[in-house]
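DM from R.C. (forwarded with permission)

"hey, sorry to bug you on a friday — could you get me a structure for this? deadline for the figure draft is monday and I only need the backbone to look sensible"
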Amino acid sequence: PAGAQTIDLKGKTVIPGIINLHGHVGNVKGLVQDDKFFTLQNIEDNLALYARYGVTGTTSMGSDTDDQMLKVQQRQKDGELIGARVYTALQGFTVPGGYPTQAPGMKAVVNEVSTAAQARTKVDQLAAKRPQIVKMWVDSHHGKMKKIPPDLYSAIIDQAHKHKLLTAAHIYELSDAKSLAKAGIDIIGHSVRDAVVDAEAISLLKSNNVTYVPTLTREVSTFVYAGNPEWLNDPFFTKSVSPEVIQGVKTTLKATQQKDPELEINEKGLGVAKTNVKKLWDGGVRVGFGTDTGPPGRFPGFFEHMEMELMIDSGLTPMQVIQSFSKNAADALRISKDFGTLEKGKFAALVVLAKNQIEHIRNSRTITSVYIGGK
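My reply, with the result:
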């Protein structure tokens, strides 16, 4: 249009901004998670960090201590540039004694429900605040904790849909993925890690229009620090992480993971997850993009780029990976009218790269500029 600014990007590559379908924003500092950290400043710092790595949209999946995220969303809608655009589930759902209430800073955050009636009431209360997603944890953590049963999560899904809200579930087991798909879940928030998906699972996820989010870096974060990952010295990583945090990873976190009795299980889980990503994509299931970044040891921004590489290792092509974090992610959040592809009439949420990502997935690191809402 007349008076528009023209920017010459000859020789550069433009991709849609990265949309992260599984993140946690604002309740971690360094390697410590605590609800006291959930402040406007920490939220804004997290969103700015995502944006510097080309993540123009992210989610906060059920760990918001209070409603401050809604204030941030309103300011973003009003045109303020506060890093990545955020979509929130506010507080997620589990059962009393269920996962993740034992995690630091989570007990006071999660909605613990015991009956379907109670679950529906809690969803109504949550819906009144107008989040975009209703999140639930469906995981016994290898049989050590109570798991939310089908009658409760079915009630949560049904009540959320009555309010026209998306639903997302943290899962681990193949049987839960199938059952949740039958119950109407919209987003599966982690890979199936206990078994290779079968034809029934592929059919259920596809026919019920479920988006599958692998979060492969989440699996990596559960065992990789027991060794000495080379990327701890990578400038693309160290530019956004303090030397004190890196030292803590190399010492305290390393010692903790080396003693973890589930280390071998976690490593095996990554292998199964990578197999399932490829099988589901080839089977026609919508594969989205997510990392579960935010908790200690899951580094926002850098992990999104690592996730891309892991998806390539799983057998996907660079174009498929790009589709996962752009069009597929936007479709999953029902924001494709405005985001997810580079088209006339959509919000300018895009990343300018010095090199073409189709030629090599790591070219996502050659960021020269990031645009959010045209700014």
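R.C.: lifesaver. Residues 263-282 form the longest helix (20 residues).
me: no worries. The two ends are 17 Å apart (CA to CA).
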